[in-house]
Structure formats: structure tokens, C-alpha cells
Amino acid sequence: MSSAIIVIPCFNEEKRLEVLQFRKYALAHPKHQFLFVNDGSSDRTGLILDDLQAAVPESFDVLHLSRNQGKAEAVRQGMLQAFQADVDYAGYWDADLATPLDMIPEFTQQLDQVPQLSLVIGARVKLLGRQIERQQLRHYLGRIFATAASTVLQLPIYDTQCGAKLFRVSHESRTLFSTQFLTNWIFDVELLARARQLEKFYQCDSLETTVYELPLSRWQDVAGSKVKPHDFLKAFFELCSIYWYYLRPALKKPFATLPVASSSDRVRKAA
User: How far is CA 59 from each of CA 14, 24, 53, rounded to the nearest angstrom?
Assistant: First the structure.
């Protein structure tokens, strides 16, 4: 089984954190680890996470941020730490487990089976035989936003905002998280925009061949979400910022310098 670290951003998740579910999964999948990022929580989240780490230190680690910096920066800090470990894959998952943990092996299996893939994204597609439970208003607002994001990215992507993503560890994926995000609500779209820049400036493989959307078999809205309907309006303004900073045709400079591939990266890519 391939090894993986899953980053879990947490802000005031005391009442929603399913500790037992994490422990059960870790027991069944010893090569999959979790890195919880406590994003300056003001409730007992930090204490709960410390207890979890102390109980099973081989499976759980905690990164405490001194103040609340938002989900985008919490994920970025967690991913940078995850990339330092000797694992095959690193990704992030929503703390409320709207996407169940038992979907993780399907993500790793996809990366195992298709070596050219660099990223697997969960897609909330309501099909017969699948249990996708979303609030109707959020679903329709989400479809409008997804269409706009797809147009800006020039990528036929169905669901940019699902909180379950898994990256193959490489110098390219590290570069995507190397600098702070401009956005907070839609940093997932910004990640893809950054990847588009790597195509343009460094002739990396196209997203159409390296990104795979995995239709989820189960997903459900969990009470207590911090995303509200009016936040979709903010998201459209952030989408304009992404286009201007990363994707406009006259852009002459990339957001970051792509580092030289290490020997381990070259071996993994060749494999």
C-alpha cells in the first residue's frame, strides 16, 4: 500500500471532530497518517488534537498555528510540512468528514494505477447509486460557480471546491504551495491556476492529462459549516483576482520558480 499524509485543517471543531472515526481508520490503514492543523482555535479543539496525537503518535501529528489564518493558509502550512515526510502522496480533507475517510484508498489507488496523474480531486456528482446529500441552494450556487471557474481556468472541471484532494509528492506539487495564496475562499481554484502557470512557463504536462476527478460514492453536508450562501459572492470577486494575477494572456512572470527536481522526484516520475 502506498504511504500518504492527509492534512486536516481545524478551526473550532470541538463539536464536530469525529475522533473515533479517525482512530478506526488509522488502525486499519497504518501507512496513512494524519496531520491536523489547529488554526488558532478558541475552543477545546487544540486539547482534543493533542490527546489524539499522544494516544497514537505514529498515526497522528498536530501543527498549532498561533492565530487564526484561514483555511487556505492552514492547508498550505500543513501541506508544506507533509511534503517534508517520506511519503508517496499528500493531500487535504475536510475535518467534518463530509467526504468519508474510507474514500481515501480510492484516491491512492487511482494515483497508484495511473503514474502520469499528479492530483486526484473528489467530485460531488449526484448519480443513481451514489449518496450525495447537499443543500439545494448551495448545490445550485455551487454549479454556477463551478461553471465560472471552469471557464476562467479553461479546464472542463466539474467540482473545484470539494474538500478532498490528494497530490503525488513531487517538486511541482511542492511549488503549488510555496507561496501564500491571494484568496481564502477559493484557494482550490488558485491551486489549479498555479498549475496552469507551470504549464505555460515550464512546459509541465497539461492538467487535462494529470488531474483526475473521482466521483464520490458518498458525501453529505454537515451542520456547522462555516461557508454561508453570501460567501459565494466573495468567491466571484476572488475568481476575478485569480484570472488577473495568474491567467490573463499578457502575463509575463510566473508566481514562483520551479525548483530543480531531486533525485527521488526523478525516480518517482520515471516509475
Answer: 20, 11, 8
Joined together, the cell numbers standing for residue 233 give 459572492
pLDDT tens for 229-239 read 667 788 999 99
> Does residue 12 come out as left (phi exceeding 0), alpha (psi in the -120 to 50 range) or beta?
left
- For residue 109, the number of C-alpha atoms closer than 13 Å in the C-beta half-sphere is 6
SS3 214: strand
Residue 45: which of 17, 18, 70 has the closest Cα?
17
Pairing of strands 211-215, 119-123: parallel
CA distance 38 to 40: 6
Contact 83, 90 (CB under 8 A): yes
Please give the distance of CA 221 from its chain centroid, rounded to a whole number: 17
Helix (H) or strand (E) holding 54: helix 45-55
Q: What is the CATH number of the domain that holds 18?
A: 3.90.550.10
Looking at the chain, the whole-number percentage of residues with pLDDT higher than 90 is 80
| Domain range for 146 | 4-270
Using CB atoms within 10 Å of the CB of residue 203, give its burial: 0 to 12 exposed, 13 to 18 middle, 19+ buried.
Answer: exposed
Asked if residue 189 lies in contact with residue 153, where contact means CB atoms within 8 angstroms, the answer is yes
Terminal CA-to-CA distance of the chain, rounded, Å? 16
DSSP string covering 168-204, please?
E-SHHHHHHTSS--S-STTHHHHHHHHHHHHHHHH-P
Write down the pTM of the prediction: 0.91
Number of domains comprising the chain: 1
Exposed / middle / buried, residue 2 (Cβ in 10 Å: 0-12, 13-18, 19+): middle
Rounded CA-CA distance 109/238 in Å is 33
Cell of 45: 479543539
Closest CA to 215 of 136, 158, 166: 158
